[in-house]
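Appendix B. Raw example, untouched.
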Amino acid sequence: SSELQEGIMQARLLPVKSIFSKFPRMMRDLSRRCGKDIDFEIRGESTELDRTVLEAIDDPLIHILRNSVDHGIELPEKRIAAGKPPRGRVVLSAVHEENQVVVRVEDDGTGIDAEKVKRSAVKKGLISEEVAQKLSEKEALELIFMPGFSTSDVATEVSGRGVGMDVVRANLEKVNGQIEVRTKLGEGTVVTLRLPLTLAIMRALLVRCKEQVYAIPTSSVEEVLAMEDVTVGSVQGKPAMNVRGRVIPLISLEGALRDDLWSDNGHRYALLTRSNDQPLALGVDGLIGEEEIVVKEMGHMLSRLKGIAGATILAQGDPAVILDVNRVV
């Protein structure tokens, strides 16, 4: 029922304070090590987020806050020379906006120099000199999300722990989040994370057909059988298996997605399921295991493909297609 679902969603929500609370101490330690004076402020710590999203933003926030201390806020004498107060400011905030939670890290530091970003990207061979010259400031800022990018030539003890902004973005995309950076040279930087309030999370059985991995909701699978344990015959010329006296049609999962229902290529397992309320066995090559997955919406074109319900990024970072067994046949 929707009330039960609502209850489950509520149980998944946690205040952001559960991860924000460790940051003041971290920021004090960092500013001391860098010889900088920083006022750190947290706003909106009672804002709630899905537990999985919270876990996913923990490392990215550590990285972004470290960057603001290390690369953003200037040393007191530099700030005074630039006509700024000697103490820098970093604000971490979380706020609800429609069906999203927006988390921001704002600093009043030196800002990001788009020209320096371009030079660094060219030097590292990420882009050519020609491409660099044509980039707008907004496009230049996108370069910081490229794998292997770093503006500081020395990986400092504070922010350069080998985690780049590319990893930060990848972590956020796993939970359908987005990141954007706005900056003004000499005035500071705002890093904005846009996060879904709740996630469609399901338990799925991961199976392999040839090289492809598919995720099938466990609620759709009644039983998994090893092919060697069942008798396969045919009914009206079509493959079927006898399971405890029930005759169940057997099709190849991989073949079904290609409209070639039974291309017998030595499947090792059969998944007992139901399609359009009729029992059905799907042949697969291998079982990988069960996993909790986050459902990602498919684009308009992909959502019309037969049997495909969505996509996900697995725990190891590999993409997988989520199947709707009702639409496979």
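End of appendix B.
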